[in-house]
Amino acid sequence: MKKTIQWTGMILAAALVLAACGQNNEEKTSATPSQAAASPSSSQTASASPELSPIQEGTIKLQEETKKLQEAIEKQDAAEVKRLGKAINDAWLAYENSVRQTFPLEYTEVEKYEMPIFSASAYDKVDFDSLKVTAEKLQGALAALLNAKETTGTTSELLEKAVANYKTYVEEQAEQLVSQTKVFVEAVKAGDAEKAKLEYPKARVFFENIEPIAESFGDLDPRIDARLADVEDENTWSGFHRIEKALWLDNSMEGMDAYADLLVKDTEELLAKVKTLELEPKAMVAGAMELLNEAAISKITGEEEIYSHTDLVDFAANVDGSKSVYLAIIPALNEKNTDLADQLDKQFQLLEKTLGEHQTDGVFVSYDKLTTEQIRAISDQISQLSNLMSQTASIL
């Protein structure tokens, strides 16, 4: 998939994609002698190694480009980092479809770390520290891919592992939600409105990534995410949007300490519940569809972030969360409907590109700055994505 420019902070945190995929996979084997010799620092090239498969050759090339990126990061050479970010993306695009078909679990690991590297290549300001960590993780994912053995397991076994990896992703997002909410709350309680406004969307993205999961826990979701229009008595209103109103409309944080403390407590409860959750592929897909439908029909009006106008952050997070579901069901798509997998891949690409056009140096513009035509384009593309996701339900 051609990668598109996404908000750096959100991408690096969310990491839209599945955690721990391809790791601890009993179906991987140790490297063969020819594989072990072929490393980013080795003088041996793919062309001189006829024993290597095309996927191994592509992976070695990608390792070499990533090694150059790591060297440029150490030198803090921003121009070279940007050039190599694009080169890495080109190298991945050259063979990613083959990887998706043959090694779906390893594919998601590489995808998770390659995307933010490419995204950062377009920003004026390079976050060298974050990119250093991401590049190291990409090298680890590439090493796992290079040594991977084509699975002999059934599709159902692969799907079971992928769903387990998705649950890990959900848990990590919930943990990040708690952590980032505490940072946001600290700013609120300190009376630092400007910092609180900066931290608000950073916390929101982790909730929006896993919103369908949160909605499965009764009144916990409205306690965290209800809007004023959702409640009958404003005195019972709590959560992110209660504080959002105080920050952007009331311009006063008086009385917000209690709501801030309650928000931390509720996100911690969400994390605890997530850890006990049992997931099923069809339920995951249904949640993703519901989330996309809600975004295309109601959230698109700007009702979600009516005071802060950070709606594009929510949309991007909803798309990332839905994409993580798509990645989880790739084993089933590979077996039963590769055409649908390709269509989903392209539609995610298109929507990410469209959303990326509304960023400045990786930060989304205020939603009220978009034209009616721009909003309609986003809505139509989200609707199409939801329709494609609905078709996956029949193969699970």
Automatic annotation (TrEMBL):
Q: Enumerate the subcellular locations listed in this protein's record, separating them with semicolons.
A: Cell envelope
Pfam families per the UniProt record, alphabetical = Peptidase_M75 (PF09375)
Q: Where is this region: Disordered?
A: 24-56
Q: Which CDD domains match?
A: Imelysin-like_EfeO
Q: What is its main location?
A: other
Which InterPro entries does the entry link to? EfeM/EfeO_iron_uptake, Imelysin-like, Imelysin-like_EfeO/Algp7, Imelysin_sf, Iron_uptake_EfeM/EfeO
Q: Which UniProt keywords apply?
A: Signal
Signal peptide feature range: 1-19
Q: Where is the composition biased (Low complexity)?
A: 30-50
- Report the residue ranges that make up the Imelysin-like domain in this protein: 162-388
Q: Which family does it belong to?
A: Belongs to the EfeM/EfeO family.
Record protein name field: Iron uptake system protein EfeO
Provide the species name: Cohnella boryungensis
Q: Which gene encodes it?
A: efeO
